[in-house]
Specification:
Layout: H1 2-20, H2 70-73, H3 94-98, H4 115-127, E1 130-138, H5 140-143, H6 166-171, H7 209-217, E2 219-225, H8 234-250, E3 254-258, H9 269-281, E4 285-286, H10 288-292, H11 331-351
Parallel strand pairs: 1-2, 2-3, 3-4
Helix pairs in contact: 4-11, 8-9
C-alpha cells in the first residue's frame, strides 16, 4: 500500500510538471498559476523581497516602495530613498512622457537610462547586490552557447569597431558564461515562478528559479528576454512579466526588457506589451526587434533543417565576430552585439550619481 501511494504521488507530480512545461520548439500552454513563495536570505547574504499574489488568479497588488532590510535602513537616508514599484508612481522622463507603446517599432535599440533605473541600482547597492554580476532571464535564445558565452574566452570573439565594449566584458566577467537558473529551453514568463523548474541541487525546496537566481548569483542587472506565451491567454503573460519586473525592482536588480525578433502571435502584441511595461515602470528597453530588421528575413529562420516552418529561431553566422561586414551579420550576430551594447549603456548609466 505504501509503495502504491508513492507511485501515485510520483505520477501526479510528473503529470503536473508536464502541464507547466513549455518548450522552445513545441508549443504547450502553461495553464497553472504557480505561487510566488517568499524570498529569504541566508545569514550574511543580501536581503531578498518579493511579491506574493493574493490568490491563484489575481495578480498581486505591489506595495508602493521597495522593502529594505533592517541593516539597509541603518545606511544614510540619501541611499535608502524608496523606489516606486507601481507604474503610476514611476516618474516621467521626457522620453517617456511623449512615448506611446503602440509606436514601439520606432523605439531605439539602445535605451536612454532613466533616473528610476539609477535609483533601483543604487537601492541594490544598499541591499548588497554585486555590481559585477548580471543575470539572464529567458528561453533557449538565452540559454544556448550562441549567446554571450564566448565573451568569457578571449580570442573567441572580435569586437572590431566596438572595442569600447571590452571594458564591460571585463567588468562582468563570470556572468556571460554562467548557466543562470532563470534560463532554459521553453522558459516563458510563468516558468521562472514555478518551483518545478528550479534546479533541485542548488535551490531550496519550494524555491522558484527567480528567487534562487537572485539569492545565489546576487545580480545588480537582469536581462529579460522571453519567448512567445504558449497559449491564447496573453493577459497571463503580461501579468507574469510584470511580476518579474516588480520582483527585480524590489530586490534592487535593474530589469532590462527585450523585444523579440519573431511574431508568432501574429500581431506583435507581445512586443507592444514589453514596451508598455518598460515605459510604465520607467526601466530600460532593448529593442532587439528593430536591430534585426535590416537583416535577411529579419534575422529569423524561415524553416528548420528538415524544411518545416520555423519563424522563431535566429539565423546563424558570425555569432561573436563584429569585425565582419554588416552584410554577413546574422540574427545571432545582432543579438550578441546589441545585448552587449545595451548592457554597457545600462551599466554606465546607472553607475552615475
Amino acid at each position: 500500500m505504501i509503495r502504491f501511494r508513492a507511485y501515485l504521488f510520483l505520477f501526479a507530480t510528473l503529470l503536473f510538471a508536464a502541464l507547466l512545461l513549455p518548450a522552445c520548439t513545441t508549443p504547450q500552454p502553461a495553464e497553472a498559476t504557480p505561487a510566488l513563495p517568499t524570498l529569504t536570505a541566508e545569514a550574511g547574504q543580501p536581503a531578498l523581497t518579493t511579491l506574493a499574489p493574493t490568490d491563484e488568479s489575481t495578480p498581486a497588488l505591489p506595495a508602493p516602495t521597495i522593502g529594505i532590510t533592517d541593516a539597509a535602513q541603518a545606511a544614510p537616508a540619501a541611499e535608502t530613498t524608496p523606489i516606486p514599484v507601481t507604474p503610476a508612481a514611476a516618474p516621467e522622463t521626457p522620453q517617456q512622457a511623449t512615448a506611446d507603446p503602440v509606436n514601439w517599432r520606432d523605439f531605439p535599440i539602445i535605451p536612454t537610462i532613466s533616473d528610476t533605473a539609477r535609483q533601483i541600482y543604487q537601492q541594490g547597492q544598499v541591499l548588497g547586490r554585486d555590481p559585477h554580476a548580471f543575470s539572464k532571464i529567458g528561453d533557449c535564445q538565452c540559454s544556448t552557447d550562441l549567446f554571450f558565452v564566448n565573451f568569457e574566452r578571449p580570442g573567441d570573439y572580435e569586437l572590431g569597431e566596438y572595442a569600447y565594449l571590452q571594458e564591460t566584458i571585463d567588468w562582468f566577467a563570470g556572468s556571460f558564461g554562467r548557466w543562470n537558473l532563470t534560463i532554459g529551453d521553453g522558459f516563458n514568463a510563468a516558468a521562472v515562478f514555478s518551483p518545478l523548474r528550479a534546479d533541485p541541487e542548488l535551490c531550496r525546496s519550494g524555491e522558484t528559479p527567480l528567487a534562487c537566481e537572485i539569492r545565489l548569483h546576487n545580480p545588480s542587472i537582469a536581462i529579460i528576454s522571453l519567448e512567445k506565451w504558449w497559449g491564447s491567454d496573453l493577459e497571463k503573460n503580461e501579468k507574469y512579466m510584470r511580476q518579474i519586473v516588480e520582483v527585480c525592482i524590489r530586490n534592487g536588480v535593474v530589469p532590462i526588457l527585450g523585444t523579440k525578433a519573431d511574431n508568432l502571435e501574429g500581431d506583435h502584441s507581445i512586443n507592444e506589451t514589453v514596451a508598455r511595461i518598460a515605459l510604465e515602470y520607467d526601466i530600460p528597453l532593448w529593442n532587439f526587434w528593430l536591430a534585426v530588421q535590416p537583416l535577411k528575413d529579419h534575422g529569423v529562420q524561415l524553416t528548420t533543417s528538415d524544411g518545416t516552418p520555423d519563424l522563431f529561431h535566429l539565423t546563424y553566422g558570425n555569432f561573436y565576430y563584429f569585425s565582419a561586414p554588416e552584410s554577413a551579420r546574422s540574427g545571432w550576430t545582432m543579438r550578441n552585439l546589441t545585448a552587449l551594447q545595451v548592457l554597457d549603456a545600462v551599466w554606465r548609466g546607472v553607475s552615475q550619481p
